[in-house]
Amino acid sequence: MPDSSEADPYSVREELPDPETFAALREAAGMPPRSLEGIERGLPNSLYGAIAVHEPTDEVVGMGRIVGDGGTVYQITDMAVHPDHQRRGLGKRIMSALETFLEGTAPPNAYVNLVADVDGFYEQFGYEETRPDSKAMYRRIE
User: Fold this and answer.
1) Is 59 strand, coil or helix?
2) Has residue 141 been placed in a domain?
3) Domain range holding 63?
4) Structural domains of the chain, count
5) The pTM is what?
């Protein structure tokens, strides 16, 4: 049996963070902010979520979720790991949980998309750029 210093201090749970933690993780990861009103409305509409928890402190240090219509379109979004806990494989573990959900629920020919902000990360899960076939676009409501 390994001693406690070798034990993995993190777990990945199938749940969503609370709105305040969601906002704080986005901020810590350098992602654009979302309004608390939008977070409170949006989180319950998620199809699936996974969080990384630092067990010794019970702190949520990472997250990812899937939104969409549950049949034809799925979007992986809000992937974030607090900088103090990066480089420990947590993003990969969260993404693996999201992929397991998709493999078990998405019907054939479902479209799964995401906006990649890290080069080389999502490719290991089989994602590829859409250009030149299409391009991603966005519009932010002020």
Assistant:
1) strand
2) no
3) 10-125
4) 1
5) 0.90
